[in-house]
């Protein structure tokens, strides 16, 4: 029976017109909403010749080499002369790393002399703390950015680039798989032109996600974006494909990725193994020793404190890269919709401001050279709690910062420095005189000789089963350093609270779960 005929039979005439009018209004509203949220091709700059890009890269590297030579020839500061606090208003120049696989191996090897990351502090013993160059912070932080999406926050890429610049972002994980026009490639170039280096997911072995043929992706890589690339990555989560068996397809696809990297290297870029959607499937994926420079972890903790899942992935990845190769975390993050628990338990936004920077610090403590947080922007608005995937962004779908974005910005600002992330540095010597067993400390050395300490605790601040916050009582921490701390500033990375140190050689702070960075130790 036709809907209109049925309406006439069961609804009185005086109500019939009201219902039809309401239906018409709803149809108009739906049409307007669909039009406003429609995918749009965002115009970008024309694809630039690769020769032009190469020339710009060579000029930038020459300028950086000249700057480094000038710094080496300048006289060092007198020991009695106070060192100037680095200017945080502008981003320090991030060094170009000419050999990515070698740099990643060096970073992983530097941690081998350190005590295990899970060890409690050695109270009362004067010792060299695990110390890294401060430039490694900026080089570790990466974001997943969906350059082919054209709705929500991605409709206009200009504001996205502005946010990338605000964060001083150095690295992004992006996809080369989408079919269609050149505007997505232009967005990759735009990121590259403002200093972002790319980890490219080179399509999909099973043709998912509207992927273009591999030959098309390879041509785009060669002609348009290779100078901006630090690493190439195989198929994303092949074990979640509806293919049986899936492992041979992922391996065949990875061989193409290796060939793309080998034949087009003007400088060595890294090849990252395929990720697994389920940690237990790494054994099926198999050994990738000859097909990758680094293992691949999707170290989601699903609202649990981040260090445990990182260690689980590092242990499991010994199957994928049994020779002790570096591990890259290509996805890690937290969904913040407390109205749903599908796939990932939610974590409140204020606690994500503690867990996200802790994820970065825990990874650095373990020699992981890169962490691509998932993801930069919420995919879309989801007020009715129907899609967990819409709530992982550090920015909401209208690019409004969440607390975790602000915390990440504080971490960058507190430890901003330039130079090579894999260089050797003089360790910071200190005595941890007082602190809880779950205390974690990582030291940073800047190029001007000053040092900083990041201090946090490996505690859970959220009960994901009961969906309630855990009360973490602050613990007193006292650290005597081989240097002057008077005037140094301790910044709570999660909430921005600041405290100025009064002692000449001792740091005294109260630490709950959120990281605290003590800056400008001389």
Description:
By secondary structure, the chain is an alpha/beta fold. The protein has 13 helices and 20 strands. The strands form four sheets. It has an eight-stranded parallel β-sheet, sandwiched between helices. α6 links the parallel β3 (141-144) and β4 (171-175). α12 (349-365) packs parallel to α13. The chain is globular, with a radius of gyration of 25 Å. Residues 1-7, 31-48 and 70-89 have low confidence and may be disordered.
End-to-end gap: 84 Å
Radius of gyration, whole Å: 25 Å
Number of strands: 20
Helix- and strand-based class? Answer: alpha/beta
Number of helices: 13
Across the major sheet, the strand order is: 7-6-5-4-3-10-9-8
Helix content: 25-40%
Q: What is the general shape?
A: globular
User: How much of the sequence is in beta strands?
Assistant: 15-25%
Poorly predicted regions are 1-7, 31-48, 70-89
Biggest sheet character: 8 strands, parallel
Average of pLDDT: 86
Summarize the structure.
With 522 residues, the chain is an alpha/beta fold. The chain has helices at residues 3-10, 13-36, 50-73, 100-110, 135-140, 157-167, 183-193, 214-225, 247-263, 282-285, 307-316, 349-365, 403-414, and strands spanning 126-128, 131-133, 141-144, 171-175, 197-201, 229-233, 270-272, 295-298, 327-332, 371-373, 429-434, 439-445, 451-457, 462-463, 468-469, 475-481, 489-492, 498-500, 506-511, 516-521. Mean pLDDT is 86; it is low at 1-7, 31-48 and 70-89.
């Amino acid at each position: 029976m036709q809907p209109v005929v049925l309406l006439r039979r069961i609804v009185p005439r005086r109500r019939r017109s009201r219902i039809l009018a309401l239906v018409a209004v709803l149809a108009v509203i739906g049409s307007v909403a669909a039009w406003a949220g429609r995918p749009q091709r965002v115009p970008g700059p024309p694809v630039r010749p690769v020769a032009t890009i190469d020339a710009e890269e060579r000029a930038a590297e020459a300028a950086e080499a000249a700057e480094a030579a000038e710094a080496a020839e300048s006289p060092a500061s007198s020991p009695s002369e106070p060192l100037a606090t680095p200017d945080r208003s502008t981003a320090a120049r991030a060094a170009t790393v000419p050999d990515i696989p070698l740099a990643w191996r060096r970073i992983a090897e530097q941690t081998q002399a350190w005590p295990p990351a899970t060890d409690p502090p050695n109270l009362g013993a004067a010792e060299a703390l695990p110390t890294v160059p401060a430039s490694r912070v900026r080089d570790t932080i990466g974001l997943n950015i969906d350059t082919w999406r054209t709705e929500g926050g991605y409709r206009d890429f200009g504001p996205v680039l502005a946010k990338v610049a605000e964060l001083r972002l150095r690295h992004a994980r992006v996809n080369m798989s989408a079919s269609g026009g050149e505007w997505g490639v232009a967005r990759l170039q735009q990121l590259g032109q403002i200093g972002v280096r790319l980890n490219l997911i080179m399509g999909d072995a099973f043709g998912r996600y509207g992927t273009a043929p591999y030959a098309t992706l390879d041509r785009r890589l060669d002609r348009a974006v290779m100078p901006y690339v630090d690493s190439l990555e195989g198929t994303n989560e092949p074990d979640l494909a509806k293919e049986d068996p899936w492992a041979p397809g992922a391996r065949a696809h990875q061989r193409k990725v290796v060939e793309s990297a080998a034949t087009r290297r003007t400088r060595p870029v890294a090849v990252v193994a395929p990720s697994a959607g389920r940690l237990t499937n790494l054994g099926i994926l198999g050994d990738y020793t000859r097909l990758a420079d680094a293992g691949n972890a999707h170290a989601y903790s699903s609202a649990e404190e981040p260090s445990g899942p990182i260690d689980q992935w590092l242990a499991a990845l010994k199957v994928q890269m049994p020779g002790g190769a570096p591990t890259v975390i290509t996805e890690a993050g937290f969904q913040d919709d407390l109205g749903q628990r599908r796939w990932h338990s939610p974590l409140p936004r204020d606690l994500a401001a503690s867990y996200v920077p802790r994820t970065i610090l825990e990874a650095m403590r373990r020699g992981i050279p890169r962490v691509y947080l998932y993801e930069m922007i919420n995919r879309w608005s989801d007020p009715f709690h129907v899609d967990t995937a819409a709530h992982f962004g550090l920015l909401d779908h209208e690019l409004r910062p969440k607390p975790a974005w602000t915390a990440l910005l504080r971490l960058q600002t507190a430890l901003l420095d330039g130079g090579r992330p894999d260089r050797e540095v003089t360790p910071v010597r200190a005595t941890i005189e007082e602190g809880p067993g779950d205390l974690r400390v990582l030291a940073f050395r800047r190029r001007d000789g000053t040092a900083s300490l990041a201090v946090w605790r490996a505690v859970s601040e959220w009960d994901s089963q009961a969906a309630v916050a855990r009360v973490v009582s602050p613990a007193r921490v006292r650290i005597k350093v081989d240097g002057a701390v008077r005037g140094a500033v301790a910044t709570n990375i999660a909430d921005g609270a600041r405290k100025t140190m009064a002692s000449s050689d001792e740091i005294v702070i109260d630490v709950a779960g959120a990281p605290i960075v003590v800056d400008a130790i001389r």
